[in-house]
Amino acid sequence: MNHPINILERYWKFTSFRPFQEDIINSVLEGEDTFALLPTGGGKSVCFQIPALVKEGICIVISPLVALMKDQVQALQNKGIKAMALTSGISYKELDTKLDNCIYGNYKFLYLSPERLQQDIVQDRIRQMNVNLIAVDEAHCISQWGNDFRPSYKNIVKLRELQPTVNVIALTASAIPEVVDDIIKELDFISPKVFKQSFSRPNLAYMTFAEEDKYFRLKAILTKNKAPSIVYVRNRKATQDISRFLESNEFTATFYHGGLTNTEKDKALENWMNNKKQVMVATNAFGMGIDKPDVKTVIHLNLPESLESYFQEAGRAGRDGNKAFAVILKNNSDDLLVKNQFLKVLPKIDFIKLVYRKLSSYFQVAYGEGEEAIFDFNFNKFCKTYGFNTLLAYNAIQLLDRTSIITLSKQFNNKTTVLFTVSNNALFSYLETHPEISVIVKSILRNYGGAFEQETKINTSLMAGKASSTEDKIIEALTLLEKADIITLKHSKTDAQITYLVPREDDKTINRIAKVIKQQNALKEKQVLSVLEYSNNNSICKSVQLLSYFEETEISDCGICSVCIKRKPKKKITSADIKKEIIQALEHGELSSRALFESLSFSEENINTQLKELLEHSIINITNTNTYKLAHI
Known about the structure:
- By secondary structure, the protein is an alpha/beta fold.
- The chain folds into 5 domains: about 5-195, P-loop containing nucleotide triphosphate hydrolases (Rossmann fold); about 205-330 and about 535-565, P-loop containing nucleotide triphosphate hydrolases (Rossmann fold), CATH 3.40.50.300; about 340-410 and about 500-525, Arc Repressor Mutant, subunit A, CATH 1.10.10; about 420-485, no CATH class; about 575-630, Arc Repressor Mutant, subunit A (Orthogonal Bundle), CATH 1.10.10.
- The protein contains 27 helices and 19 strands.
- The strands form 4 sheets. It has a 7-stranded parallel beta sheet, sandwiched between helices. The chain has a 6-stranded parallel beta sheet with strand order 8-13-12-9-11-10, sandwiched between helices.
- α12 (about 305-315) links the parallel β12 and β13 (about 325-330).
- The chain is globular.
- It starts with a helix and ends with a strand.
């Protein structure tokens, strides 16, 4: 039963491996250092999870993405496999207990961030563990030439000292050859087995269309392909606006972004995964670790920030092997917009120093202190307090996160603290005249008995469940109690948490990472220019352009992209053909010119020409509402 194929069938319910998976698994089982470059949808996680289940002991997985760690741990636990993740925000005592469980509790997987690996207690316990494999996920983060370089990743090699006899597997979905070589060097691989799956997706048609009216073309694409789709947009507000627009045009749509609560995210994802909603409108926060094989179209309404990220996002279409479409809709303003969004807001070193100092003032972190301190963070309030440009400030904080000065955890929170300032008797006398909030107050008292002695943090979501109410009703009840001088209440909404990873040393802290930041800014500029070249080049096959970017050599035209289709000889269309189809369409009722453009496969120019001729010959009429109808109807 410990054969890889048996484990695949038992836990994943598949009877065969995807390309390269079995070879990679065998390499790992043979004790080889292994590098796996599998594009999005190639099934990377199975390549380390199955060998870890075959062998005795625990697999240590390094990942920079908290959300992805949680998703993978949850997926393993759902299969009955013991796994845990050491995320930020846990106490020393809890960390101590969890690490002991990894040694003595028959756990198979321990997920942790590279920052967590630097703690002495973590290193000490890893030495005592029966480690069977070290897996480095998103391994491109270790390379200074990678699209998401994190200096903390360079410390992963410490694991080789802690467990010198254990082999390592590095996995990534996108890496140019320069990055591959850097990963192998940084992880101290000896005679590694390297597996690179081609980035070619023969079933995926890459399309780029110049469109002044993107919404019109969006509707046309989704009407033609009535199947699960993803629409990527630039910001959180756009996800909601476009989702509402699609719903108002008789599509089923939902939206997803980093500011939603976990409950809201789960509901949106479930509706889309179960095909209750055709379209998921999302920021690039959506998609990592999500495997929905029947996605027909992935549409970018804005230019992506890099071809690496575009390849991953576009690659979420057509995983079932059926023909699918990856579409970029662009107009004349997009080139300038993408430069403004990604290049003009690249923060300089002096600005990053300023933001770091202001963060420390905002959280009242003293010089030389702050390490491991965790703060709820309202980003918009922070920017307003210090008059920062939001995009510049956000990019500065992102760089502080990537360079392991802080950790930025994007999550929506209600922070509510309560202190009862009256006696028990006075409280219950008040409740006699306000029975509508009695259940809520009693639920709080049962769960937070200390609220009479000290300010106590209340989980409003938990209380809503206990009292069979809603979070809004909980807040209303607490506000009422505050007005009656029954409690003191502090309530704030936060959209993130920030954890300080190193003591505050102001400019000294930033000077240590200055070289890395300059190099990353230069890389970002190169990536944006590559996106502009790709989106504007309509003479070379789109697939060839992408494969060339990743330095593949054995490539040929795909035959199905927007460039290749234009080259194909077209069947000659006569004016009679166009008139015939217009008349057939109008036999079902009046239609606007827009509706005719959507339903017919001819160009707008050709349709307009034939509409004029049909009007001149009185075969059709135009109505008072500017629609067309057949003259005899």
